Amino acid sequence: MQPIVIPRERHSLSRSRIRPEALRILYRLRNAGYTAYLCGGCVRDLLLNRTPKDFDLVTNARPEEIRRLFHNCRIIGRRFQLCHILFGRNEFIEVATFRSLTDAPEVLHAGRRLKAAVARLPAGLIVRDNVFGTPEEDALRRDFTVNALFYDISSLAILDYVNGMADLEARILRCIGDPRRRYVEDPVRMIRAIRHAAVLDFAMEPETRAAITDCRNYLAYSSPARLFDELLKLLSCGALERAYAELKATGLIEVLFPTLSEWLSTQSIEGDRRIAEAARWLDAALRDGRSLSPALQLALFFGPLHETEAERLLQTGQVPSRVSALLSSVHLHFARLRSRVLVPKSLISETAHLMAIMARLLRAPPASPSSLCFRPLFPAALEYAAFHARQTGEGEAEVNAWALFHSDDRPAPTPHPKKRRRRFVPRPQPAAAPTAESEWNPPLAAQPAADGPSL
Ligand code: ATP
Ligand code: MG
Hints:
Elements: E1 4-6, H1 20-31, E2 36-39, H2 41-47, E3 56-59, H3 63-69, E4 73-76, E5 82-87, E6 91-97, H4 105-108, H5 112-120, H6 126-131, H7 135-140, E7 150-152, E8 158-160, H8 164-170, E9 172-173, H9 179-185, H10 188-200, E10 203-204, H11 206-215, H12 224-235, H13 240-250, H14 252-256, H15 258-266, H16 269-287, H17 294-315, H18 322-337, H19 345-363, H20 378-392, H21 396-403, H22 436-440
Parallel strand pairs: 3-6, 9-10
Antiparallel strand pairs: 1-8, 2-3, 2-7, 4-5, 5-6, 7-8
């Protein structure tokens, strides 16, 4: 199939908005005779005049061919190999070879037969002709029409195999192909649909949306580690309030966050309102360009649930104090959620400690500068406490008092005194006749200080 070609004069994607490193890679691939396109979310975002999160490239060059062109190229992945072209400090641009439809998840997960067949082939042979495909196949295996546009560096045109440009102009998020089949293939696409529609402020095409409700239970087959990544993306997408409303409206929340959905069903409308407010607060903070730690994001979003659960533990006498009640409620909740969304242990413990410090901040104003102020989690706990005080009207005076200790120029915590290593001091040697070498190496006292001015 031939793509719809939108020439440069009929679209708004300008080269000046493409990251220079990505542009250089595109040109080097093109000059070496390969096809090279900008693809995925960055084309969509540039056409919408948004700043892309990352720049992804796709080409007909095979990974080894790409490596021959770029000395700073690292090949990753086993079955489908991708190239990372490294630059700067730990930064890279991902370059993929066009993928075929046989590499689609339903084929990959078709069962042991395929895996066994793949395993029988000599190493290195399998992949090549099976997984690499044409630009058209590559476009068709993507998730939504607006995510499948290519920007061709040779002609500066947009190549559209899926009618994505029309959807982009109409601000519609539409699955490529039959939404039910696409969600069953990879249920994570349902969360992606909700996140992309919320972030872009697009309407979901009716079938794309209805199929989420029909297929939501398939999400239970997705890997809990991958769902944790999706949770982090949702929390930091900047449109969490809208996404939260859609998770509820489609019923996906029942499968993605069963614990939260259960909790909501036991609460009055107030519980839901508090979560929505937390979501709005997170969105506003991101809009202001603030970077929030995942622990603070998790604490805020699940805060109302953790707080009521802590209250219950306290009331039923299962724990001696509010601080330990909060610690327990966070650990218990994420342990229950584990089979669906796997939050790493270190992050659970950080979130629990943040809540515990927050409870101490709300309990009493500081009598004097306290060691609490120097805890790494203090600023995040103070943010939470301020949000809590604003929502409930409790602890405002305490939060204001603690806030006096939080400023960017507060004194740095005193470092723990380091154990001093004993320096090796050579024993005095019997005086020897000066050698040529010792004349070139005068005694230390006579040398300039190593860290002194080097003029
Ligand atoms: P973001 O702005 O969040 O990075 P994105 O659309 O670029 O959005 P990525 O996760 O970076 O999302 O993926 C890049 C591209 O890969 C997508 O635009 C889409 O074309 C394709 N893609 C990603 N995940 C899937 C999936 N689960 N199924 C099909 N295609 C996918
Ligand atoms: Mg992206």
